[in-house]
Amino acid sequence: MWAVPTASCLGRRKGCALSTALAPRLRSEGGKRIESAPEWTRIAPGAYADSEQWELADLEQRHLTQIAAAARRKGDAVILLGASAALAQGLPVVGRLPKRVQVLRQGSQRGRTAVFDRHCRDLKRVVDAGGVLASDVVTTCLELARSGDLVQAVCAMDHALREGLCERGELEAALAELGEGTRGVCAARSAVHLTDGLAESPGESLSRVRMWQAGLPRPRLQVTVDTRLGCFRVDFLWQLGDGAHVVGEFDGMVKYHRASFGVAAEETVFEERRRERALESCGAVVARWTWADAWHDGGARMLEALADVGVRPTGRQW
User: Fold this and answer.
1) Which end of the chain is more exposed for a tag (fewer CB within 10 A), N or C?
2) Would you call 167 exposed, middle or buried from its count of C-beta atoms within 10 A (0-12, 13-18, 19+)?
3) pTM of the complete model
4) Which domain of life is it from (predicted)?
């Protein structure tokens, strides 16, 4: 059996995402009447969630609620893997979420049920993710990479490095433990090569993967630029062969839809434009793009915006 770290041993962990799950109710707690009560929605065999809350929940919250229900019903028999383990430990899962809870297959268990996708793994490191067992952050990140989704893996790894949930050396050591013929090892190697804890959002991580895939020059990340209006830290910075500087800025829509540190959305937009003018006054050219620009068609619109200001493929990857 695995040695499971207690909360006090997980020093770098920043809390548990399962705290955001809805509170599932088991049939054994509510009796048979819960099955026909309209105020309860069946989310798994023998498990129910408040119908109104379930309707309002996003896909991540629903998946976390299914994990919480599984943990209450099965206890230590559930060990989360992949995207399920990532969500439970607060890592971003970019792209498609699994329909079923991803868990370790143990003994003679069936591979797939209505609730679980069970996978055979030689799992060496297990942690307590807020009441449910899961593969540790390093193993989870490599599992995402080995599944073949480079964007998803790099977003998770960048977040883990930035938040101090693991270190690059731990990722590299775990990667070295994988045999050369191990499924997905090449994809995992690419993800570890690309990961950088300087990325401050999944959008920046996504953008950097697209740049690498397209063969763009490698940007510097989170560089502070001194302007007449003060110092600004930019997402991406290139110095071109002719000496020109190009600033790349990922526009996360969240900063326009939520107040940013108590500042109204309109004022936030104004400050972004003021910042752009200040950078341009230093001779830099600024390219901006959104999540949709970087996500769709391999980031075609983002790459076009960068090409317009002189950042074009070199034919080499970093």
Assistant:
1) N
2) middle
3) 0.84
4) Bacteria
